[in-house]
Specification:
By secondary structure, this protein is mainly alpha-helical. Helices cover about 75% and strands about 0% of the residues. Helix 1 packs across helix 4 and helix 3 runs antiparallel to helix 4. The N and C termini lie far apart (about 30 Å).
Length: about 100
């Protein structure tokens, strides 16, 4: 994840004609977010279709595009890892209830 994230950062300012990542950044937030929604939908349909190869393929796309969002927002994946670590050992219902306090 970290290597992919740093590769995304390196390609952020590359030529949009030769780099998909650069093209996404050049088109801006709406295009990037549309790709996340698109990939999330494709991932869900792959799960529904019980097509494991497609699940893996679409999840890889979703992770990539999610990392593009993080790079766009200048958020390092380490911050997400820290949040997941914070939640580890806390039941899901308990964690959700704590957000309302």
């Amino acid at each position: 994840i970290d290597i992919l994230y740093h590769t995304i950062l390196e390609r952020k300012d590359a030529n949009p004609q030769t780099s998909w990542t650069a093209k996404l950044f050049a088109k801006g937030e709406n295009t990037i977010l549309k790709k996340v929604v698109e990939e999330a939908g494709e991932f869900c349909f792959a799960v529904k279709d019980k097509n494991n190869d497609e699940v893996i393929y679409e999840l890889a796309d979703l992770i990539y595009h999610s990392l593009v969002v993080l790079a766009y927002q200048n958020i390092h994946p380490e911050q997400v890892k820290k949040e997941l670590k914070r939640r580890f050992g806390i039941g899901g219902l308990e964690e959700k209830a704590s957000r309302n306090e």
